[in-house]
Design a protein that fits this description.
mainly beta, four-stranded antiparallel beta sheet, three-stranded antiparallel beta sheet, about 30% strand, globular
Length: about 100
């Protein structure tokens, strides 16, 4: 199937496509042959759902599970820390890893 030229499939097993160009909220994009509207501004390097993803499902990038879905993600939706939990960090962001004043 074909997808928007601003979206790159890294591995045939992937659940996501990677933005190689900026996509603005509301712009039409084609994902796996289906036209949808971008649900958010999607920055370069960010992910878009290649198909519907349900909570608990793994999210694969480069053919490897990088996280788990935390809430339903429709086809073409922005996939990021607001709807997946990383397999690599204990939190959704790295804020907890930053040193705080007084920490040695």
């Amino acid at each position: 199937m074909t997808s928007d030229p601003r979206l790159l499939l890294l591995d045939p097993q992937d659940d996501i496509l990677v933005a190689i160009g900026r996509i603005r909220r509301g712009e039409p994009i084609v994902v796996e042959g289906q036209e949808v509207s971008a649900d958010a501004d999607i920055a370069l390097g960010h992910k878009v759902a290649r198909h519907e993803l349900e909570p608990g499902m793994p999210v694969r990038k480069y053919g490897v599970a990088i996280g788990r879905v935390t809430r339903p993600i429709p086809l073409g939706a922005h996939v990021h820390v607001h709807n997946i939990a990383s397999n690599y960090t204990a939190t959704h962001t790295l804020d907890d890893a930053k040193p705080r004043s007084g920490d040695a």
